[in-house]
Specification:
Order of helices and strands: HHEHHHEEHHHHHHHEEH
Oligomer: single chain
Largest sheet: 3 strands, antiparallel
Strand content: 5-15%
Number of domains: 2
CATH topology of the largest domain: Arc Repressor Mutant, subunit A
Length: about 220
């Protein structure tokens, strides 16, 4: 049995869920993988931004936290759980095709979710869907580095107010590419872009970013730890 170490001291982020999840939905969910998926999807959707919120199949298929709880064949379990959640009516699924690429989007079965799915099925692509494709900084941290602590959460909030969202995303990608999965490293990249100018600080060779530059210069000794 894997044990839970308990909730940490200090500030803890709470999750808001509709009352019907507990009064109407949980009593009828009879599959553990479906239950895990349902709660996880509602949690992730709650952290998205925009009037209409959704997750792509690939968002879930690459979610290490979710997959870690789905057994020895997590991708098969994920597909089965998604099928059950859609059949039960918890989630709505719609397939889209853009630039020759097919994708499946999942919405919570809410009035806004139903309207968005109906619009997509009519061949429309509501503008407010575009605004939610980018994950927030907390999701980026948890998906690429690990569990949040209250201190890190405060620093992330400050960074989100200081730097453009595109910079934050690119800095996370840089850290992952070099296997430097720490907020210290990402913060130093952002600080360098702010002080030197992003275009001057980032060099591209053959269309690829030279992230190795961040291991040298003023931040070099700091980033190697």
């Amino acid at each position: 049995m894997r044990l839970f170490s308990g909730f940490p001291e200090g500030k803890v982020r709470f999750v808001s869920l509709p009352e019907q999840v507990f009064s109407d939905l949980l009593p009828i969910v009879d599959d553990l993988a479906e239950l895990k998926l349902t709660l996880h999807v509602l949690w992730r959707l709650g952290r998205r931004r925009g009037a209409v919120r959704y997750l792509r199949y690939e968002d879930l298929a690459q979610d290490a936290v979710l997959l870690s709880g789905l057994g020895d064949d997590p991708h098969a379990a994920l597909r089965a759980a998604l099928t059950r959640a859609v059949e039960r009516g918890t989630l709505l699924a719609v397939t889209t095709e853009q630039d020759g690429t097919r994708d499946t989007l999942y919405f919570a079965n809410t009035p806004r979710g139903r309207r968005a799915v109906a619009a997509i099925e009519r061949g429309e692509w509501p503008d407010d869907l575009r605004s939610v494709a980018r994950p927030d900084i907390f999701s980026l941290y948890e998906e690429n580095i690990g569990l949040l602590t209250p201190l890190i959460a405060d620093e992330l909030r400050e960074a989100e107010q200081t730097y453009p969202a595109a910079w934050i995303e690119e800095a996370f990608r840089a850290a992952v590419a070099l296997n430097k999965r720490s907020w210290k490293y990402i913060r130093a990249i952002l600080e360098r872009w702010r002080t030197e100018g992003k275009e001057d600080a980032v060099h591209r060779r053959s269309g690829e970013t030279d992230w190795g530059k961040y291991l040298t210069g003023e931040y070099g000794p700091y980033l190697k730890h």
